[in-house]
Amino acid sequence: KQSPTRAYLAASAAMPRVPRRPSDEARRGAYKPPGVDAARSRRRREDRLLALRRRNRDAGLFKRRREEPSLTPAPVVPPPDAAADATAPPPSSEPSSPPSSPPPADALRAAADAELEGLSEMVDKVWSDDTATQLEATVQFRKLLSDGKNSTMIKIIRADVLPRFAEFLSRQRPPQLQMEAAWVLTNIAASDYTLLVAECGAVPRLVELLESPDANIRHQATWALGNIAADMPSCRETVLDHGAVTPLLAQFKEDMKVSVLRTATWALSNLCFGKLPAEIQVGLCMIIFPS
């Protein structure tokens, strides 16, 4: 007589086998080529995304747009005279009117769009022979570029006025024209079109402006050269080939403003990013350690 256990095992063996459901790994292997590891592929994608974020962050650190109204220091107001205070009328007890609120963003955008529509007129003014008209148009271009819009940048570049601004860098009269032209080129060099600034003849003139008697012009030229050097190795080599290192190091003076020293340090760091030629390294050592 067969035991119940053996009878159950025999009946189970006689029953048809139901196919097992394939595992997730087996199903993935059926659709992916052999040798592809899902975890490794995911890590590789994460590494690529991290590298892209770092490149975008570094690009933002290496390039700087100038957005503040002016580099010119505010005039110092002398203290009031005591005699004048004695004879001055007492302050009014009426409440002062609240400060005027800034214009809304829509109004600013409308004003910028209106100026952009008159771009052809601005181009004509830039190419005029009157210095005052040239300065007025350069200021208008600078204001347009301060918003940082890529569409505005493209339209200005297509107007083919960059060589004219590079030419203004050599105009010593008025010095404000040099300042505004360098400001325009600084903001363009902070965009994706830095190579156009490097190729329009601005680099040697910007290097010459590092020896300008005007500290604000030197500061702006340093800023522009720092943006150019931060773009790509070829732009950095262009700045180095025109001898920008020595006049940049000359900016480090005891009586210089902290903002100027900070900008000069940042520009030099962009020039030193990567491997410098041997003659540049020796020259830097001789300038920094003259003894």
UniProtKB/TrEMBL annotation:
One of its GO terms (biological process) is protein import into nucleus. InterPro entries: ARM-like, ARM-type_fold, Armadillo, Importin-a_IBB, Importin-a_IBB_sf. It holds the Pfam family IBB. One of its GO terms (molecular function) is nuclear import signal receptor activity. Residues 1-107 are annotated as: Disordered. Residues 57-69 have a biased composition (Basic and acidic residues). Keywords: Protein transport, Transport. This is IBB domain-containing protein. It comes from Aegilops tauschii subsp. strangulata.
